[in-house]
């Protein structure tokens, strides 16, 4: 039934991202989950006003990455996809 290559923390990561999402939406932005790789790096795409914001990298690293690492300690990094 399930794919043996599915990362076991993926569901927890997605749940944590849903908890963070309203903070981005409050400023007219959002994020799209892309994947989590074998090194537990979470790949995201910032959308809406976040996609073109000059502070997007800081939001990604200081906001989303910090939050995810607290919520899911196995996460090693958050990577922005374009």
Compute the gyration radius: what is it? 12 Å
* Main sheet overview: 3 strands, mixed
How much of the sequence is in beta strands? 15-25%
The tally of beta strands, per DSSP, is 3
Q: Structural class of the secondary elements?
A: alpha+beta
User: Can you list the strand order of the major beta sheet?
Assistant: 1-2-3
Shape: globular
Would you list the SSEs in sequence order as H and E?
HEEHHE
Low-confidence stretches: none
End-to-end separation in angstroms reads: 32 Å
Residue-averaged pLDDT, rounded? Answer: 90
Give the % helix. 40-55%
Q: Give me the number of helical elements.
A: 3
Chart the SSEs and their pairings:
Blueprint: H1 10-25, E1 29-36, E2 41-48, H2 49-52, H3 56-71, E3 77-80
Parallel strand pairs: 2-3
Antiparallel strand pairs: 1-2
Helix pairs in contact: 1-3
Task: Describe the protein's architecture and organization.
With 82 residues, this protein is of the alpha+beta class. Helices cover 44% and strands 24% of the residues. The chain has helices at 10-25, 49-52, 56-71; strands at 29-36, 41-48, 77-80. It has a 3-stranded mixed beta sheet with strand order 1-2-3. A hairpin with a 4-residue loop joins strand 1 and strand 2 (41-48). Helix 1 (10-25) crosses helix 3 (56-71). The longest helix is centred in the first third of the chain and has 16 residues, at 10-25. The relative contact order is 0.21. The model has no long low-confidence stretch (mean pLDDT 90).
């Amino acid at each position: 039934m399930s794919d043996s290559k599915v990362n076991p923390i993926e569901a927890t990561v997605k749940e944590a991202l849903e908890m963070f999402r309203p903070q981005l939406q409050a400023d007219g932005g959002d994020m799209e989950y892309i994947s989590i790789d074998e090194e537990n790096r979470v790949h995201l795409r910032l959308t809406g006003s976040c996609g073109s914001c000059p502070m997007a990298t800081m939001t990604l690293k200081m906001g989303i990455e910090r939050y995810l690492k607290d919520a899911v300690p196995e996460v090693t990094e958050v990577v922005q996809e374009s």
